[in-house]
Amino acid sequence: MMMLGACHPGTPALSEWMPLLLFLAVILTLMLGYPVALSLGGTALAFALIGGLFGVFEPVFLEALPNRIFGIMTNETLIAVPLFVFMGVMLERSRVAESLLETMAMLFGPLRGGLGLSVTLVGMLLAASTGIVGATVVTMGLLSLPVMMRRNYSPSLAAGTICASGTLGQIIPPSIVLVLLGDVISSAYQQAQLDQGVWSPDTVSVGDLFVGALIPGLMLVAFYMLYIIGVAVLRPAAAPAIPREERALSGVALLVRVLAVLVPPLVLVVAVLGSILAGMATPTEAAAVGALGAMVLAATRGRLNLGILNQVVQQTALMTSMVFLIFIGATIFSLVFRGFGGDDVVSAFLTELPGGVVGAVALVMLVLFLLGFILDFIEITFVVVPIVGPILLAMGLDPIWLGVMIAINLQTSFLTPPFGFSLFYLRGVAPPEIKTSAIYRGVIPFILIQLCVLVILAVWPALVTWLPRTLYGS
């Protein structure tokens, strides 16, 4: 293969700048509003053509594209994506969230901050049963925000609680983010080992990432609830209790209602996650169980008919097609980026940073955090992680720890003003009297909580790695 820039004496400098120019061009194209998949693939192919004309890109790199696309289409792990999407959309159509919120509000209503605790717990349950962040934030905003306002909750506390609880679907399994991230981290881990001369590389699975994310996800829920309780104690007027006369049920009747509403989704969650934790099923097989269970749950609630099934299938096909088309566009981008020697440039930059692996991880996390303002998690997972992942893993980082840290980092950027996606979701459904500034103020404490969790996990990585090693010895 020709050395890059051999055709023209003045082009080596151009070849060194091409990876950065390609990355910036993709970001600019996305900010202009063009479709993500077409922006990734089209911009990369345009740069490949320009690079070929100037002799700084070898077209032979593109010969690997058909095999890459075929590999995407035959990847059994990614079959979990449409199944989990189907499960989430079906549960959304069956109005599980509405019943859970009403029941939890009656259960925790006597407590100051009870509505906030209810929203957090329902957000956790929806995250563990749907894993779709946008749908969760919108659903919670439509159902719980008007109720919290009628109960004289602080607008900022109500908005912050809904946004933060809605983004738990990023980290609590079975999260679509973790499915996609797990597949990419697995490939990056194998590549890192092969680059080091390990010809029988260890593997890491999506199931490992699911298990590793359990303790951090529950930590976030616990810290959210402690914060809400703290606000209720220090500022009682910001999170009042529901008056007794406004609580429809109590005693045995309330207990029966709680069991009737809470047990079915819990059984579904246990069936999906439990089968993975016990090693009885792969995430893909568990996703099939979840999809079937969601249909059964909808049928028991009288919410399963041909019309609803048609809507769910169409929405599933739309979201799945978007994910796979972005994956194909990201694959083209990755090939061209590597063809320009971009991975070597990034590797040299990260390894030469002061602070070694700590400095490299800190910089990558900062870059991912900032990119989370303008890119969705799918683009970041498919475009950025394959570039930096093998480099960081070659430095000796645990792949499960790295995957969980990236997931929480992206979850934090989704909450951060002024560009956090969750803020946009809630702003779209919030009533006009809820000011945007109140939403921004409300999420700041939850952002600080997530940053604290990131620091805790960085100091004690065993909080992520202990459970997978205990269960699987990985």
- The oligomeric state is single chain
The succession of helices and strands, N to C, reads: HHHHHHHHHHHHHHHHHHHH
Percentage of residues in strands: under 5%
Number of strands: 0
Low-confidence region ranges: 1-12
End-to-end separation: 39 Å
- The average pLDDT score comes to 82
Q: Determine the structural class based on helices, strands and strand pairing.
A: mainly alpha
Radius of gyration, rounded? 23 Å
Biggest sheet character: none
Topology:
Elements: H1 12-31, H2 36-54, H3 65-73, H4 80-93, H5 96-108, H6 114-129, H7 133-150, H8 155-166, H9 176-195, H10 206-234, H11 251-277, H12 283-300, H13 306-339, H14 342-351, H15 356-371, H16 377-394, H17 399-415, H18 421-429, H19 436-459, H20 462-472
Helix pairs in contact: 1-2, 2-13, 3-13, 4-12, 4-13, 5-6, 5-11, 6-7, 6-8, 6-10, 7-8, 7-18, 8-19, 9-10, 9-16, 9-17, 10-17, 10-19, 10-20, 11-12, 13-16, 14-16, 15-16, 15-17, 17-19
